[in-house]
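README: folding subset

This subset contains proteins for which both the sequence and a predicted structure token string are available. Records are stored as plain text. Below is the entry for Response regulator transcription factor (154 residues), shown exactly as it appears on disk.
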Amino acid sequence: MAGYARGAVLLARSDPAAALPELRAARQEWQRLSSPYELARCRVLIGRALRELADEQSATTEFAAARQVFHDLGAVPAEQEAAHLLTPAAPGGLTAREVEVLRLVAAGRSNPEIASRLVLSEKTVARHLSNIFTKLDVSSRTAAAAFAYENRLV
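--- output ---
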């Protein structure tokens, strides 16, 4: 449980790269203990971390596996959450956090302003912007902002 909690906290702090090893170790432990519900909960967090790291295919695999376990266990609310996560809600495969950053970019905010507003480090904001640029295949804040307006994200 401690590894799961550490991973959840790191993920909440927008540090999916550090969260992933903690969550993977927790997943192995839940598997060893034959605890399917906890294992599936852990897989949901792993999927969230992978999505934050722009590995949508692996994230989808984790969400689907968790959804199946929740279904088999009759854990309807958890199954619905996993099912919801299987469909990226934002265009361009952006995560919810990336959409938040993109909205602030489109509003003309600087990286330090975005960091302060979202309670993130400037380095994390820069990483999110890099991921956004890659996913949207753009090379400037202006082009990213145009995408946000074209896709009604602002």
